[in-house]
Amino acid sequence: MPIRCITFDLDDTLWDCAVVMERAEAGFYAWLSDKLPKVVAGHTPESLIKQRRVYCEHHPELSHDFTRLRKGWLADAAVTHGYAPELVETGFRAFWEMRNDVQLLVGVADMLAELQADFRLGVISNGNADVHHIGIGHHFEFVVHAAAAGALKPDPKIFQHALEAARLSAGEIVHVGDDPVRDVAGAAAMGMHTIWVNHARVDWPGGSLPDAEIHQLSQLKGVLQAW
After folding, report:
1. Residue 138 carries which DSSP code?
2. What is the CATH number of domain 5-15+104-226?
3. d(CA 42, CA 196)
4. Residues 106-128: tens digit of each pLDDT
5. With left for phi above 0 and alpha for psi between -120 and 50, is residue 29 left, alpha or beta?
6. Domain boundaries in the chain?
7. CA–CA distance from 23 to each of 28, 34, 181, 183 (Å)?
8. pTM of this prediction exceeds 0.85
9. Taking the alpha carbons of 72, 73, 75, 76 in that order, is the dihedral positive or negative?
10. Closest C-alpha to 181, from 122, 126, 102, 104
11. Which of 109, 132, 136, 121 is nearest to 174 (CA)?
């Protein structure tokens, strides 16, 4: 069955997520220090992140929705320290802008444009990055986020949402991502083809192998042409 559609993971596949989040968290801490100083009083950026993680652990029903988790934590922190709840949306927007200030890996924009000529493209992401805000949304026919699907990869539910959005069978889609479990195992379990983006050139951790492995995204087209 020919491949008609390629779905992409975003964070750590099309850009370096660690760099983005480190910068965004630092900027968010600075925003809090200026606008809600009581929230950060006695906290380092690291201890504040740990506090937010504790909040997240107490709300497992929202584990698929990073936006609601951050807003919920911020709302609790604001009210606890006597700040107006209206600041929550402003604060989240400040973080979100920085979270979406990404540096695409070399060649990504050209690769998407080239692939778009021959394949339908989509996104399957656990995170809350916005490809339209980033400036690459025009390459994708559909975007499936965990928040909307109600489940994180590798849950079949999020991949099922992608299949419905693509209106194709699983065998007509190849999923491209960096995570052996969330991306490769999750997509393979649905019958999709898989390509592991192994930027760090680490050993395969075990389990069913991907259909192909690449070390840089420039190799993707060649792999697809060889199928």
Report:
1. G
2. 3.40.50.1000
3. 42
4. 999 999 999 999 999 999 999 99
5. alpha
6. 5-15+104-226, 18-99
7. 9, 17, 27, 25
8. yes
9. positive
10. 126
11. 121
